[in-house]
């Protein structure tokens, strides 16, 4: 018996020295990763990053996307539980609807991490994201630097995404005081179903018709919907004349910035958030506690005082990006490629290739 124990511990020590503690602890861990959709540029990128990071640590990842269908997402999560996952990372289509799946998983002792978007359940093991209210402030600030009076359009994100509520809170922190002063009039306020660029185009077409194109600025909530709105603005000769905000520093968004149409975007370095998700998932799957999280109440995270309970959280910083710093912050950091951003800029007007 003693001899057997000695040989086992010898094997373990050798494995640790060869593969490192985490990968030994990650062996045989199955991580379920559930996305709301793969329509937005960032989600498939983060799925690949998570797969790569988990593989490097010896863990297995099951990835699924729910095509903006909240019921399908819950079914996919149930299915992951049946497939024996040890932990689940979720980008929720609907923060309220996904709470049922998190509560079910908790009953089966399977910890869930809400990734980027909050899920309205006190049974979350962790919620990790960016400072979403600051995203909204940066968006409004970026537009107000160009135009700080007149007729404004507010274009919110998906109504089922708690982030959209937080972005709007930040936007109004900057805009409301100017409305109160009578400097700004909000002439239209719409929320874009599913964060769909096509929905944004249709909404903006109707707004421009209703306002006879008499709009001075648009506070939009991500690159996808902003570029959708810009389609309608372009058709009316307003693109590049009326400032508009974005988010996510997508390739198309940064390209539109250097071409003078999108005014700004918000850089959220997902290369920092994905490793955090995989490390926390492995820690939870090993039954260990995650260090460095701070408790927030669901009421403060949702601006809805009727919600009870707290969630352990971690939020990363965001960076305001416009034509003056897109090259340094986005291109030189490799977040987007030089060729993607400057492809339609004449060679002699481009900055040097980093
Ligand atoms: C938000 C996310 C943004 C944006 C949007 C559309 O929740 O924080 O980065 O991409 O969803 O998917």
Automatic annotation (TrEMBL):
Coiled coil: none
Chain ranges of the Periplasmic binding protein domain: 31-288
Family annotation (Pfam families): Peripla_BP_4
Alphabetical UniProt keywords: Signal
Entry's Gene Ontology cellular component terms: outer membrane-bounded periplasmic space
Subcellular location: Cell envelope
GO MF, one annotated term: carbohydrate binding
Keyword Signal on entry: yes
TM stretches of this protein: none
UniProt-recorded name of the protein: Transporter
């Amino acid at each position: 018996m003693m001899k057997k124990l000695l040989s086992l511990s010898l094997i373990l020590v050798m494995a640790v020295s060869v593969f490192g503690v985490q990968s030994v602890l990650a062996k045989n861990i199955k991580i379920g990763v559930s996305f709301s959709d793969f329509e937005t540029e960032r989600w498939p990128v983060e799925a690949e990053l998570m797969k790569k990071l988990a593989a490097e640590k010896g863990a297995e990842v099951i990835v699924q996307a729910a095509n903006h269908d909240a019921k399908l997402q819950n079914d996919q999560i149930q299915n992951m539980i049946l497939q024996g996952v040890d932990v689940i990372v979720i980008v929720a289509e609907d923060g309220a609807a996904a709470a049922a799946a998190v509560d079910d998983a908790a009953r089966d002792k399977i910890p869930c991490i809400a990734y980027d978007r909050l899920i309205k359940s006190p049974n979350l093991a962790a919620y990790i994201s960016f400072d979403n209210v600051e995203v909204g402030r940066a968006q409004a600030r970026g537009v107000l630097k160009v135009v700080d009076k007149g007729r404004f359009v507010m274009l919110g994100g998906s109504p089922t995404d708690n982030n959209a509520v937080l972005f709007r809170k930040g936007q109004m922190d900057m805009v409301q005081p100017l409305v109160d002063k009578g400097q700004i009039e909000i002439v239209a306020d719409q929320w874009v179903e599913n964060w769909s660029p096509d929905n944004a185009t249709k909404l903006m077409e109707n707004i421009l018709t209703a306002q006879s194109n008499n709009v001075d600025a648009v506070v939009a909530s991500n690159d996808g919907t902003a570029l959708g709105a810009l389609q309608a603005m372009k058709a009316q000769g307003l693109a590049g004349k009326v400032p508009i905000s974005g988010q996510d520093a997508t390739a198309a968004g940064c390209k539109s910035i250097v071409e003078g149409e999108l005014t700004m975007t918000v850089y959220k370095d997902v290369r920092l958030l994905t490793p955090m998700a995989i490390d926390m998932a492995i820690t939870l799957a090993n039954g260990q506690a995650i260090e460095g999280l701070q408790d927030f109440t669901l009421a403060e995270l949702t601006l809805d005082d009727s919600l009870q309970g707290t969630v352990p959280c971690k939020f990363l910083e965001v960076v305001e990006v416009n034509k003056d710093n897109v090259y340094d912050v986005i291109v030189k950091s490799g977040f987007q490629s030089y060729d993607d951003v400057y492809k339609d800029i004449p060679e002699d007007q481009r900055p040097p290739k980093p």
